[in-house]
Amino acid sequence: QKEVEQNSGPLSVPEGAIASLNCTYSDRVSQSFFWYRQYSGKSPELIMSIYSNGDKEDGRFTAQLNKASQYVSLLIRDSQPSDSATYLCAVIITGYSTLTFGKGTMLLVSP
Amino acid sequence: DAMVIQNPRYQVTQFGKPVTLSCSQTLNHNVMYWYQQKSSQAPKLLFHYYDKDFNNEADTPDNFQSRRPNTSFCFLDIRSPGLGDAAMYLCATSRDYPRLAGAAYNEQFFGPGTRLTVL
Predict the structure, then answer these.
(1) Most exposed of A62, B41, B94, B107 (fewest Cβ within 10 Å)?
(2) Rounded Cα gap, residues B108 and B32, in angstroms
(3) Is B97 an interface residue toward A (CB < 8 Å)?
């Protein structure tokens, strides 16, 4: 069974801190990994994609992938109150043509 | 700007009264998806099209139908909405199916969504 697991949170961090969001997946042959940000009442917005083991950086965001541990994470440096949102992890599993989403982690950044 | 557009943004209907939600895209993407998302839940895939080839998820209720008359447009029809169908309905597109790992065409882009209320 395809599963993507995330801690629902909320994860609370002070402004300026590093927020660390984690995601595990059950299928060993998963091949593509995505992080979406979703503000309350809005649609998901793609912020990062990662396909290879290691780190991928884009501005204040760093995605980390460890396929051996079936683990993908998102780090947000210098967190801002505007980063407060739900972060959805999504995975494409080999042989499937669609995304499998986790339920998301709510991040709260306090001023 | 290239984008995914959904109309209406908010839809109120009565129990059992058919409703149609629309999605259009200017990205010229081959694949279009319809998702249902309820509060604090992951988006749930209902349908997807590669061009006009239709794919129905096994657990999508028969009450939901979809049409894609051309590359740019896709519609979601709810034949007899029930209270449990109140949700955010999300349309998304991708350039292709994920045939190769690491390809940019794996990425899905979402429209703003339609919030459906059933009275």
Answers:
(1) B41
(2) 9
(3) yes
Query: What integer is the mean pLDDT of A75-99?
Result: 90
Give the span between the Cα atoms of A74 and A48, in whole angstroms.
Answer: 9
* A95 chain-B contacts, CB cut-off 8 A: none
Q: According to the model, what pLDDT value does residue A2 have?
A: 63
- At residue B17, what are phi and psi to the nearest 5 degrees? -90, 120
B109 to chain A, minimum CA–CA distance in Å?
A: 7
State the number of CA atoms in the 13 A half-sphere of B28 facing the CB. Answer: 1
Q: Using CA atoms in the order B68, B81, B39, B67, what is the torsion angle rounded to 10 degrees?
A: 0
Mutate to test the interface with A, among B23, B107, B114, B116 (most CBs of A within 10 A): B107
Give the pLDDT mean for A43-61: 94
- β-strands A105-110, A11-14 pairing: parallel
Residues of A whose CB is below 8 A from B90: 43-44
Burial class (CB in 10 A: 0-12, 13-18, 19+), A99: buried
